[in-house]
Design brief:
Blueprint: H1 4-18, E1 23-28, E2 48-55, E3 58-64, E4 75-80, E5 85-90, E6 106-112, E7 118-123, E8 131-135, H2 142-145, H3 156-164, H4 170-175, H5 185-195, H6 208-229, H7 234-243, E9 263-266, E10 271-274, H8 276-279
Antiparallel strand pairs: 1-6, 2-3, 3-4, 4-8, 5-7, 6-7, 9-10
Family: Belongs to the FPG family.
Organism: Gordonia caeni
Domain Formamidopyrimidine-DNA glycosylase catalytic: 2-102
């Protein structure tokens, strides 16, 4: 799943190519992707991309009027890529719209700039969770309105208050977008490994020293990933992300820090990884939904 560093890189990539370009047409291959009907997606035609940025893990493609008779000051295309979504820029887009309801990966196609230029929003796999909204203000997207503070924008004291006010475990707190925006399954694994903390430690149990360590790990992990992805092409982002991972998606491999075997806790539709030596005092976490440390 694209998380804060990847979404930031995708936003910068698209901003560098699409900003100031007119939108010639938007093709929708999967109507279920669109979560709004007003304004219609056709309202984007003829408008100009003013900027592409992110809010949490959401891509926000901002547009301004491209014609004197367009009275809408701003209409935004907001995209949540979910688990398997991605963006692919092309200078040879087919003028033929993708077939609605087809089995291909394309969900949306945005033609902007010269003929052939633009990008596809795609989603791999059979579980279609990618979502898009056409709004006059991103705050109109309910999920965005309910987001917690951005993971890279809150202070140490704000982070401490967030942890102290939570009754959840660290893994859950870090990945709950209503509590903290931008961190997902992969980077929460990496943050907790860097902080040498168990995923199942209670957030409010951390003392001041523990908060300091976790806050430093949060910022260092996200900033390092963001810097490594900066300036890369879309096709390079996924591979570069994998090179920086120490425990996530490395079940059964040696921990690069201590050499212990990376372990996994699996749920119905997801899993996470950790190092027993680095994070749980050598104890193995039970591999079930209501997991507890084995005695």
């Amino acid at each position: 799943m694209p998380e804060l560093p990847e979404v930031a890189a995708l936003a910068a990539f698209l901003d560098g190519r699409a900003a100031a370009l007119p939108i010639r047409r938007v093709d929708v291959a999967s109507l279920s992707v669109l979560k709004t009907a007003e304004p219609p997606y056709t309202a984007l035609t003829g408008r100009v991309v003013s900027a592409v940025d992110r809010i949490g893990k959401y891509l926000v493609i901002r547009t301004v009027p491209g014609a004197p008779d367009d009275a809408e000051p701003e209409i935004d295309l907001v995209i949540h890529l979910s688990r398997a979504g991605w963006v692919r820029w092309s200078e040879a887009l087919s003028p033929t719209p993708p077939r609605p309801g087809g089995k291909g990966p394309i969900a949306l196609r945005v033609h902007c700039g010269l003929p052939g230029e633009g990008f596809d929003v795609t989603e791999a796999g059979t579980q279609k969770r990618l979502a898009a909204w056409i709004v006059r203000d991103p705050a109109q997207v309910e999920r965005i309105a309910s987001l917690g503070p951005d993971a890279l924008e809150l202070s140490r004291d704000e982070f401490a208050a967030l942890l102290a006010g939570s009754g959840g475990r660290l893994k859950s707190v870090l990945t709950d977008q209503r509590t903290l925006a931008g961190v997902g399954n992969a980077y929460s694994d990496e943050i907790l490994h860097a902080a040498r903390l168990s995923p199942f430690a209670l957030a409010k149990s951390l003392d001041d020293a523990g908060v300091d360590v976790l806050y430093a790990a949060l910022r260092a992990t996200l900033l390092d990933a963001t810097e490594r992805l900066e300036g890369l092409g879309v096709a390079e982002l996924k591979a570069e992300k994998r090179t920086g991972l120490k425990v996530h998606a490395r079940t059964g491999l040696p921990c690069p820090d201590c050499g212990d075997t990376v372990r996994e806790v699996s749920y119905t539709d997801r899993s996470f990884q950790y190092c027993p030596t680095c994070q749980t005092g050598g104890k193995i976490l039970a591999d079930r939904r209501m997991s507890r440390l084995l005695k």
